């Protein structure tokens, strides 16, 4: 059945016409609390003094344009958003275009890319926008043909009146449609009638990307702009002295400026700056906390025994449960800091013109860039414009505006338009890392092998809450204690794809494997039993959908032939994050006594799959990302500086290191949920559990290659 | 500073730069050919791959002084209308996520297929192993190279 849905008129604003003539609907893309309904003039819309944050327009030629506020960094939002609008509109997909919106002052409450949240947030709104436009077009057509609206149908940008054989294009009725009032309610399609959603629509930027068009921030050029690079201090240090004589002598360098703890080298092109940066001599001294990995390890181990842990969740009586336990299992897991290392290094363009600022570049959060610029310069944020380029990856790094402020600082000092570029070395050493974390898990089993008690204590270095206390298995264990300890390190951290859960899931799913083994239960059965418990006699709140989690577990087990082939050693893992459920099975075969990782089977419940191509990308990409960093990613600090500064010492996963990945979806019928992150967290655990199944070696720390249990395994990765 | 006459994408260019300037930065900063990307600058990732006399080469570590009269091809010059078999396969397979590494991947694949028009999957993996894709599009890269080999 198709749903009748209230349009919530506050979310919709329409104006008479676009400047070129046509239907123009402004709507709230992401705001939940919109101000009151208002009819706008074209001038108001175009001058930005309007109260909506996106639009859909249909020109008399039938071209459909929608305006996307969300930065595109590979999550494919620029393709999947318009698909949703076009679906309800019954548009001709070949005539749909999407434009990247600049930062729109005050109008967006969620103009950012992060948290896998865009699609769940906008799904309904996009559908209503498309359906509202279709309704207006149909009304206009019914008036023109003097027939009942119900006798009309639409397909691919055309309106048909079957009885008379008459037809109209959308373009032919847009002018009349633009005179109409927005409907109170509109009809949304039954998902089974979708013709665009659920089909593999190709990336709208393919032509430009594959022919080398300037799309990315680093490609931006403005006549007369200067280039700049920034020398930053190691963590916990400050500048003692600067000798810039040699740097200044490089031809093409126009200025060397010291401000705060930074030294900016300014010049007419990039290469001279790279040369000058190597010649710049900066002496640093301690500013309090100069740390090394050795210190970090010690701090985390010691803090695990701290008396000052913050209780995040407590159910039942854990002390009693552990006292009465037939068996107690305790293990610790640890991960290092990690850089995000997107392929496009940090960069931004800024032009400070007195009280006004123009910002252009790759950012996941243009609003933070603007706010911080306003603060830095002491000017109203309305004086700052931000244009968003395509992002060459983000992974959370571009949620931080430090590199934007670099450009602002330099531009105001040299009084010229400036593009700041970070070298790869700057990117690796410049901070805002995935935090280093250490966990201690304990489980209490009764004589029958039931988990009657569960404890988790997390210590994170600038990790905030490292434990996500309401995630599985919370709710499934009668006695539970989850505690957190945060240590303020001088090493800066930030969200990193699937923040916290990117390692927590690994540790937890590996630990549950250890517990299942001790309980002498099959790992899949062990998890299913816990979920049954969460369903039949939950303890405290259960913040995940038990049935959906069971759904992906069963699907992955079935598709991977779980436990059916004794030649294949398997590892299981399941995780719920960013509103989606993903279970994974890693298959290792022993070939000539050597473990060969051949395949990862994934089963995902992210509700309706909007674009299968994009979704497969996110699932496979998340798995490759999770696998690469579990195996190779390492950042070792010495005196406040990482030893790994580029891809020669910081190892990223490559072509020959990825196994076959079998991507599957569980069709739960729910509205779409996030997919940019959820496939990553389960991967490390699935692989580690498979390695254990194959070799009896338990990997409790990342990266694997640094563990002695792993070094002589000679794990091979092979597809097919 | 010195004057260099370059032959890029079938056109002649003249630039006045220091002789240690890598070809990558000459392309990007001096000639506005920004399709060739910077990512590591030390011949580790392949984002900067161009063809020098048909050979896939990391332009980030190639000083302009050593280019001489060699023929340089960048992603902008790989085909007239974006219709090189590799570009077509890249579109067909919908390879990209963020897209930043893909120009380098395409250039590497195109040079490889010229030398080895009928590669095995293993040969594809070996050839493409020098290009990093941080988004993890490796499966599609492999598929697209195989498709390009078939449809040539
Ligand atoms: S930028 Fe040249 S290989 Fe990485
Ligand atoms: S597509 Fe993003 S780095 Fe390859």
From TrEMBL, chain A:
The keyword Disulfide bond does not apply. InterPro entries: Ald_Oxase/Xan_DH_a/b (IPR000674), AldOxase/xan_DH_MoCoBD1 (IPR008274), AldOxase/xan_DH_MoCoBD2 (IPR046867), AldOxase/xan_DH_Mopterin-bd_sf (IPR037165), N-heterocyclic_Hydroxylase (IPR052516), OxRdtase_Mopterin-bd_su_IorB (IPR012368), TAT_signal (IPR006311). It holds the Pfam family MoCoBD_2. Residues 211-288 form the Aldehyde oxidase/xanthine dehydrogenase a/b hammerhead domain. It comes from the Bacteria. GO terms for molecular function: oxidoreductase activity. The keyword Membrane applies. The lineage of its organism: Bacteria, Pseudomonadati, Bacteroidota, Cytophagia, Cytophagales. Keywords: Membrane, Transmembrane, Transmembrane helix. This is Isoquinoline 1-oxidoreductase, beta subunit. The chain crosses the membrane at residues 12-30.
TrEMBL record, chain B:
The keyword Oxidoreductase applies. This is Isoquinoline 1-oxidoreductase, alpha subunit. The lineage of its organism: Bacteria, Pseudomonadati, Bacteroidota, Cytophagia, Cytophagales. PANTHER family: BLR6218 PROTEIN, OXIDOREDUCTASE WITH IRON-SULFUR SUBUNIT. It comes from Belliella pelovolcani. Residues 2-78 form the 2Fe-2S ferredoxin-type domain. GO terms for molecular function: 2 iron, 2 sulfur cluster binding; metal ion binding; oxidoreductase activity. The keyword DNA-binding does not apply. InterPro entries: 2Fe-2S-bd, 2Fe-2S-bd_dom_sf, 2Fe-2S_ferredoxin-like_sf, 2Fe-2S_ferredoxin-type, 2Fe2S_fd_BS, Beta-grasp_dom_sf, Diverse_Oxidoreductases. PROSITE patterns: 2FE2S_FER_1 (PS00197), 2FE2S_FER_2 (PS51085). Keywords: 2Fe-2S, Iron, Iron-sulfur, Metal-binding, Oxidoreductase. Pfam families: Fer2 (PF00111), Fer2_2 (PF01799).
């Amino acid at each position: 059945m198709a749903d009748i849905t209230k349009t919530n008129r506050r979310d919709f604003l329409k104006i008479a016409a676009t400047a070129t003539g046509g239907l123009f609907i402004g709507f709230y893309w992401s705001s939940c609390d919109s101000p009151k309904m208002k009819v706008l003039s074209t001038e108001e819309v175009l001058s930005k003094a309007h109260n909506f944050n996106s639009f859909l327009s249909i020109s008399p030629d039938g071209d459909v344009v929608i305006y996307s506020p969300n930065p595109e960094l590979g999550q494919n939002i620029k393709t999947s958003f318009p698909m949703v609008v076009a679906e309800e509109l019954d548009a001709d997909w070949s005539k749909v275009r999407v434009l990247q919106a600049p930062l729109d002052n005050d109008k967006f409450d969620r103009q950012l890319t992060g948290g896998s949240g865009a699609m769940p947030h906008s799904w309904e709104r996009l559908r209503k926008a498309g359906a509202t436009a279709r309704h207006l077009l149909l009304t206009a057509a019914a008036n023109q043909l003097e027939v009942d609206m119900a006798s009309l149908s639409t397909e691919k940008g055309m309106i048909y009146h079957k009885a008379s054989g008459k037809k109209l294009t959308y373009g032919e009725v847009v002018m009349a449609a633009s005179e109409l009032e927005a409907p109170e309610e509109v009809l949304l399609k039954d998902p089974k009638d979708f013709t665009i959603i659920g089909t593999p629509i190709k990336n709208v930027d393919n032509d430009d990307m594959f022919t080398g068009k300037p799309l990315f921030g680093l490609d931006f050029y403005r006549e007369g702009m200067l280039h700049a690079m920034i020398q930053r201090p190691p963590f916990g240090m400050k500048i003692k002295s600067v000798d810039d004589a040699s740097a200044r002598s490089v031809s093409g360098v126009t200025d060397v400026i010291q401000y705060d703890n930074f030294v900016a080298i300014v010049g007419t092109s990039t290469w001279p700056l790279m040369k000058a940066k190597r010649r710049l001599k900066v002496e640093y001294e301690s500013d309090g906390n100069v740390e090394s990995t050795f210190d970090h390890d010690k701090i985390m181990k010691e803090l695990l025994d701290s008396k000052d842990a913050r209780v995040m969740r407590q159910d039942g009586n854990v002390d009693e449960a552990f006292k009465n336990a037939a068996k107690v299992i305790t293990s610790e897991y640890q991960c290092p800091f990690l850089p995000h290392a997107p392929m496009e290094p940090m960069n931004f363009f800024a032009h400070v013109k007195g009280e006004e600022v123009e910002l252009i570049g790759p950012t996941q959060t243009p609003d933070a860039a603007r706010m911080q610029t306003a603060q830095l310069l002491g000017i109203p944020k309305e004086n700052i414009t931000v244009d968003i380029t395509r992002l060459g990856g983000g992974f959370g790094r571009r949620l931080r505006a430090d590199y934007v402020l670099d450009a602002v600082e330099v531009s105001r000092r040299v009084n010229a338009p400036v593009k700041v570029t970070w070298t790869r070395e700057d990117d690796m050493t410049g901070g805002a890392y995935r935090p280093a974390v250490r966990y201690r898990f304990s489980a209490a089993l009764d004589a029958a092998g039931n988990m009657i008690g569960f404890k988790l204590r997390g210590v994170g270095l600038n990790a905030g809450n490292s434990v996500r206390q309401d995630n599985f298995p919370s709710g499934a264990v009668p006695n539970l204690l989850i505690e957190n300890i945060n240590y303020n390190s001088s090493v800066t951290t930030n969200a990193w794809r699937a923040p916290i859960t990117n390692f927590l899931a690994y540790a937890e799913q590996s630990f549950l494997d250890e517990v299942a083994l001790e309980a002498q239960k099959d790992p899949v059965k062990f998890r299913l039993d816990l979920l049954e418990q969460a369903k039949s006699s939950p303890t405290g709140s259960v913040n995940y959908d038990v049935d959906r989690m069971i759904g992906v577990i069963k699907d992955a087990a079935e598709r991977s032939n779980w436990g059916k082939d004794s030649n294949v050693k398997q590892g299981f893992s399941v995780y719920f994050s960013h509103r989606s459920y993903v279970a994974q099975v890693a298959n290792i075969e022993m070939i000539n006594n050597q473990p060969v990782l051949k395949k990862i089977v994934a089963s995902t419940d992210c509700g309706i799959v909007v674009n299968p191509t994009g979704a497969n990308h996110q699932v496979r990409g998340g798995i490759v990302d999770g696998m690469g960093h579990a195996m190779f990613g390492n950042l070792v600090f010495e005196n406040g500086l990482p030893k790994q500064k580029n891809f020669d010492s910081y190892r990223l996963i490559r072509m020959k290191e990825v196994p076959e990945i079998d991507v599957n979806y569980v069709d739960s019928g729910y509205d779409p949920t996030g997919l940019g992150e959820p496939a990553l967290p389960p991967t490390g655990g699935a692989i580690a559990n498979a390695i254990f199944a194959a070799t009896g070696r338990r990997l409790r720390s990342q990266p694997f290659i640094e563990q002695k249990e792993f070094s002589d395994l000679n794990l091979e990765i092979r597809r097919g | 500073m010195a004057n260099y006459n370059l032959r890029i994408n079938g056109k002649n260019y003249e630039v006045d730069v220091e002789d240690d300037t890598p070809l990558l930065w000459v392309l990007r900063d001096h000639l506005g050919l920004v399709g060739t990307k910077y990512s590591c600058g030390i011949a580790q990732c392949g984002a900067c791959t161009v063809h020098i006399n048909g050979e896939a080469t990391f332009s980030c570590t190639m000083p302009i002084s050593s280019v001489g009269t060699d023929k340089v091809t960048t992603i902008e010059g790989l085909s007239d209308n974006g219709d090189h078999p590799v570009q077509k396969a890249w579109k067909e397979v919908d390879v990209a996520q963020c897209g930043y590494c893909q120009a380098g991947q395409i250039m590497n694949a195109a040079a490889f297929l010229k030398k080895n028009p009928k590669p095995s999957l293993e040969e594809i993996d070996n050839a493409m192993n020098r290009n990093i894709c941080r988004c993890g599009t490796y499966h599609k890269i492999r598929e697209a190279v195989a498709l390009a080999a078939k449809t040539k």
